[in-house]
Each structure stands twice: as structure tokens, then as C-alpha cells.
Automatic annotation (TrEMBL):
Origin: domain of life: Eukaryota
One Pfam entry name: Arf
UniProt-recorded name of the protein: ADP-ribosylation factor-like protein 16
Keyword flag Calcium: no
Molecular functions (GO terms): GTP binding; GTPase activity; metal ion binding
Segments passing through the bilayer: 69-92, 104-122
Length: 128
């Protein structure tokens, strides 16, 4: 999972992991490096590596042997959308990902607490 800085990757993954820990006071610290989340969806466990947005210049180092990509865009950050598109393009044209499935998650981080975790799970279940 990757995207530009502060687009909601960690919050989304924490919500998928256990939505009881997420409320209107929940905040996330920008990821410097990578985080690994184990997420269980309908009795199947997925290991998802989150790559911090600040690591965009070296994302290509993490793309070998990747067969699924989740790319997150925060639609409430209008200044970030164009940068997010450019970064997504660099991922899509990378030869290491020519056979990978890509899920694009566009959401409003301000309203993400309101969205039910089941809608995230349904999308991920469909793609995986």
C-alpha cells in the first residue's frame, strides 16, 4: 500500500485491522519507512506492507515480487491530487508491476471515520 504523504494509509489499515480502535480523536503519525499490517478478511489473513509517502523517490526498490498494489488518495487534499496522479503513474508504468493488480482507494480522510469498515473490506475482498 502506498500513496503520497498524509493521504490516510495508516488510518485506513488500522481501521481494517480493528475498527474499534478508530474514532474521531484518532490521529496517525506520518510513516517514515514501512509498516506491516496483518489484516484478516473472512477467515483469510493478508500481510500488507505500507510504504510511507516520504519514501516516494525509492518506492521502486519495494516493487519486486509485488502482485497487488493498493494506492490511496485523499480527495479532501486538493493540493495533493495532482502529485498523487503523477506518483500513481510512476507505479503503473513500472515494469516490475506489469502483472500486478492495482486498487485505487479515493476517500476523504476527514470523513473516513464515518465510513463503515465493511465497505473497505468489501472492496479489498473483491480485489484479492
Amino acid at each position: 500500500m502506498t500513496s503520497p504523504v498524509s493521504s490516510g494509509k495508516t488510518l485506513l489499515l488500522k481501521n481494517l485491522q480493528n475498527n474499534n480502535n478508530i474514532d474521531s480523536t484518532t490521529t496517525a503519525v506520518p510513516t517514515m519507512g514501512t509498516n506491516i499490517f496483518n489484516i484478516k478478511i473472512e477467515e483469510k489473513c493478508y500481510e500488507i506492507r505500507e510504504i510511507g509517502g516520504a519514501m516516494a523517490p525509492i518506492w521502486s526498490m519495494y516493487l519486486n515480487d509485488v502482485n497487488k498494489v493498493i494506492y490511496v488518495v485523499d480527495a479532501s487534499n486538493l493540493c495533493q491530487i495532482s502529485a498523487a496522479c503523477v506518483l500513481l503513474y510512476t507505479i503503473l508504468v513500472n515494469p516490475a508491476l506489469k502483472n500486478a493488480e492495482v486498487s485505487l482507494v479515493v476517500f476523504n480522510i476527514v470523513l473516513s471515520i464515518i465510513i463503515k469498515t465493511s465497505s473497505y473490506r468489501a472492496h479489498l475482498l473483491y480485489k484479492f
